[in-house]
Design a protein that fits this description.
This protein has helices at residues 21-32, 63-72, 85-92, 101-108, 110-119, 133-138, 166-175, 232-248, 287-290, 295-304, 344-348, 379-393, and strands spanning 13-17, 36-40, 54-56, 75-78, 96-98, 127-130, 146-150, 160-163, 181-185, 189-199, 205-207, 211-216, 219-225, 253-263, 269-277, 316-323, 353-357, 368-376. By secondary structure, the protein is of the alpha+beta class. Bound molecules: adenosine-5'-diphosphate (ADP) and magnesium ion. The site of magnesium ion has 2 residues, from loops.
Length: 398
């Protein structure tokens, strides 16, 4: 279906729910297209606050604040997937809002998400829905060892517990407060990959090529693109699945589909969807430096009703996440530690290294403080330089 709409001309206002690093990078991309950006975020000092043109410090459910945003902005988008769906629905009555409340509601809830993806005929991780202790008693033995994940409000591995067996899972379920959850089989991961797709309100799509992702302790550590592990077949299948999901949701905005490449008992590989994110994604940060149009520029174009940009990758890239651990000295053994500034000069001496820091004042372990993307003409060259940057920063090799 084609839906024309009146776009927002540069100079106009775009609104954003959420003020984290994704919001900061969105604001920068929108501003470079000439837009002004209003951010609604409960925190006054989030990464987007210092770059946006107007900041509304309010709860996501604050009706006068939402009205203010809708009055100011001809279009609103989100960087935070846990924005209450009813706030998006409210905004959509007043201005062009992407993605839709319905799409975000699916991505916010692991149970609804898995059900939806399976209904598209796409394989998900073997799992059981756990809403009661009885559900746990009935869960198949095949799901152990597993991971119990709260259905809502998890991120960066939070709200999850690795469980060896059923009694472990019972304890973990109690610890989660018996909230609705999914029990997933712990799959033997050959590796992980993701696809970021941009889809406009006219149904046009632009796809960033699949990237390989390495997670450490449930948090993205390294993204590599192109990756020798991603065979042409895997690439075709992952892109087809991401497009099918985007179309089935009638999704408008930037969507990331995270996949597992699982190794079966007989050694063969299969592609499973892990989860979807209704926004630009950490694994798409490399697009800022390595693609003609970044994922954030796509988000701004979609909100403004402009044509999608070219997602073509012009360089090989390796993105390293910079977690707060790099700021925290280990030498006194405490978890707080002493703070020190990583040696940015040593990082930036590397040809092709692009540093992105999010302006967070306080570094904590596991907190995303920034990223560095190394670009080069050839993948082996990007990897070689990225390993050297990792050594300088004290990031473990891969
Ligand atoms: P989050 O919402 O925090 O990103 P994910 O469900 O994506 O949570 O889990 C984070 C990471 O933990 C994954 O990227 C993967 O590395 C690992 N993981 C999650 N679920 C499984 C699983 N069922 N089997 C093996 N590894 C998993
Ligand atoms: Mg994830």
């Amino acid at each position: 279906m084609t839906r024309d709409r009146l776009g927002v001309a540069p100079g106009g206002w775009l609104g954003l729910l959420g003020g984290g690093q994704l919001g900061r990078m969105f604001a920068m991309a929108a501003q470079s297209l000439g837009y002004r950006v209003a951010v609604l975020d409960p925190a006054r000092d989030g990464p987007a606050a210092s770059v946006c043109d107007e900041h509304i410090a309010a709860d996501y459910l604050d009706a006068p604040a939402l009205e203010n945003l809708a009055l100011h902005c001809a279009a609103v988008t989100t960087e935070f997937e846990n924005v209450p769906a009813q706030s998006l629905a409210f905004l959509a009555e007043h201005c062009f809002t992407t993605p839709s409340a319905e799409s975000v509601a699916v991505a916010q809830d692991r149970i609804a998400e898995k059900r939806f993806i399976a209904s598209c005929g796409i394989a998900v991780v073997p799992h059981a829905v756990i809403e009661s202790v009885d559900d746990l008693a009935r869960a198949s033995d095949d799901l152990f060892p597993g991971i119990l994940k709260a259905s809502r409000l998890g991120y960066d591995g939070k709200g999850q517990a690795r469980v060896a067996d059923r009694s472990d899972a019972e304890r973990a379920f109690a610890k989660l407060g018996h909230v609705a959850a999914v029990l997933e089989r712990r799959v033997d991961l050959a590796f992980e990959l993701s696809v970021v797709v941009a889809r406009g309100s006219d149904g046009a799509t632009a796809i960033f090529a699949p990237a390989e992702n390495l997670h450490r302790e449930g948090i993205l550590a390294v993204t590599t693109v192109p990756s020798p592990s991603i065979t042409p077949t895997l690439e075709t299948d992952a892109v087809a699945a991401a497009l099918r999901i985007a179309h089935a949701l009638d999704y408008v905005g930037v969507l990331c589909v995270e996949f597992f490449v699982a190794r079966d008992a007989n050694g063969s590989l299969s592609l499973l969807v892990n989860e979807i994110a209704p926004r630009p994604h950490n694994s798409g940060h490399y697009t800022i430096d390595a693609c003609v149009t970044s994922q954030f520029a796509q988000q701004a174009r979609i909100a403004a009703g402009l044509p999608l940009g070219d997602p073509r990758r012009h360089s090989a890239a390796v993105m390293l996440n910079l977690l707060g651990d790099l700021w925290v000295r280990d030498d006194d053994g405490s978890d707080e530690g002493r703070q020190r500034e990583p040696d940015w000069c040593a990082v930036l001496k590397h040809a092709g290294a692009n540093l992105h820091l999010y302006g967070k004042r306080e570094a904590r372990r596991g907190r995303k403080m920034g990223h560095v993307t190394i670009v080069a003409d050839r993948p082996d060259e990007a990897k070689r330089i990225a390993l050297s940057v990792a050594d300088v920063l004290g990031i473990a090799r891969w």
